[in-house]
Amino acid sequence: MTYTVQIKVMPLKELLDPQGKAIVGGLQNLGLKAIEDVRVGKNITLQINADSAGQAQQIAEEASKKLLANPVMEYFEVSVN
Amino acid sequence: MTYTVQIKVMPLKELLDPQGKAIVGGLQNLGLKAIEDVRVGKNITLQINADSAGQAQQIAEEASKKLLANPVMEYFEVSVN
Fold this sequence. Notes:
CATH architecture of chain A: 2-Layer Sandwich
CATH class of chain A: Alpha Beta
Radius of gyration of chain A: 16 Å
Strand order of the largest sheet of chain A: 2-1-3
Largest interface: A-B, 33 and 33 residues
CATH superfamily of chain A: Phosphoribosylformylglycinamidine synthase subunit PurS
Largest sheet of chain A: 3 strands, antiparallel
Strand content of chain A: 35-45%
Oligomer: homodimer
Distance between the termini of chain A: 13 Å
Number of strands of chain A: 3
Structural class of chain A: alpha+beta
Shape of chain A: elongated
């Protein structure tokens, strides 16, 4: 069966996110002053052929560790739909 | 009150996603052959100062339309936590 898996890859909370800071500035210039902080990461949607949701989750975690996330700068969260 | 809002910005389903295709190739070379399709988008986390969750959602949608998403190539989904 094919499972749809979402992986959220975000910069670690301890690190600065210059892209996010630039977006806050841009939004404030556009008049959206209520937005106080922005952090930008990736959202990756996978179609995985697996026997169970658990197996799909395991494959997605392996893919994140091997290729999709850089553990020095990012953390990831996997969710199987 | 400060609300945490997640915005998921993904390439439109009708469009090719070359970055996703490259990742599928990379994962297959790493032996992860169960992964059939990958699409890559952005995940943006906002801290919004608003009176209600509904107002925070409205501000996030305005920010998406004005700056964060390109409607020619992308769609977005807003969720308030």
